[in-house]
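Complex 374.
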Amino acid sequence: MENEIRVGRVPARHEVEGEALLVVDDLRTSFAVAAGSVKAVDGVSFELYRGHTMGVVGESGSGKTVLSRSVMGLNTSANATTTGSVLYAGDQMIGKSSKEKKILWGAEMAMVFQDPMTSLNPVVTIGRQLTEHVRYHLDMGKKEANEVAVALLQSVHIPEAEKRLDNYPHQMSGGMRQRVCIAIALACGPRMLFADEPTTALDVTVQHQILNLLAEQQRDRAMAMILVTHDLGVVAGRTDDIMVMYAGKAVEKAPTGELFAHLRHPYTQGLLWSIPKVTQAKHTRLNAIPGRPPNLIDPPSGCKFAPRCAYAQDICRVEEPTLRSIDTPDHVFACHFPVGTPEGEEAFARNVASDYPPALAAVGKLRASEEVVG
Ligand SMILES: Nc1ncnc2c1ncn2[C@@H]1O[C@H](COP(=O)(O)OP(=O)(O)O)[C@@H](O)[C@H]1O
Ligand SMILES: [Mg+2]
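Predicted structure with adenosine-5'-diphosphate bound:
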């Protein structure tokens, strides 16, 4: 293992470009439960380049966390089965032993979780949690590890870092705790960082600070980052690419600017409508997508989004659409009647005309967004 701390290290250009750092192909993870098999991740493929950021967006339960854990090899529960291919720097992750994976965790790929309280040990000081991690991976003496710990806390903008080493997690605010988690994740200079809803538990101002901190660290270290969120607003302007997930599948993938300019999947449109607007009055009802995500044990046939989709036609309930593109090859989506196309607009108009409930909800909801509730 490299005995080097990559704090502030800027990689050479050839490290940033070139071949993908992560190549995921047809990844599937299912959980055996009494009622059957929960297909949490159902054939997801993507590539991530060094120094690039990908946003993974979808409602709660769409498989984002299971995807992240499957890529890292963290799905170790006895009822989980993962198949497919995860090449990290050309090395196959699927089938690696825990011992082999432990060497990679922290040093190569690290993870920041939603709730900093559950990833920090409540009875161990911040200082010890940081230094133990550094010493385990970098084989350092106590004094040296302490210095690294202080430097790391400073790099995530924690004031009076030295004093903070003696703090227990409960003595810090939620935002500060998340900064500590980020410092721990960054301690060994990973080349790839998974941030799984890193700001969901925080209030809005702190959310922005943490997202900016992640962006700054990602840039300074030219790390690849996967930013997982249920909020399309979080990834706007913060990622190179976006992958939208629904019911364990990628339903739309595109460079971020392209996605916002020409979104094609009605589900992505629903997510966009669900973003709270700064200009909206408080307590304004959000344009949540009607209905619920499908049962992953026995999902509906055809497109899994069809029962909630304002554009759905008969074929959608029978034939599952596969990923395709129209004019931009790196923008793919799985939909028979894409948003912004003549066939899509026709399908939507037909559904509104025939009082198809999700289509009426979509029209009605546009009005609801201006309506103040409570
Ligand atoms: N250990 C498990 N056993 C059974 N089902 C699970 C397990 N872990 C996750 N799931 C199911 O997998 C689906 C995807 O979960 P998850 O990846 O956590 O969603 P997200 O992170 O997008 O909110 C959910 O339906 C969830 O209930
Ligand atoms: Mg999750």
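Confidence is low (pLDDT under 50) at residues 1-14, 365-374.
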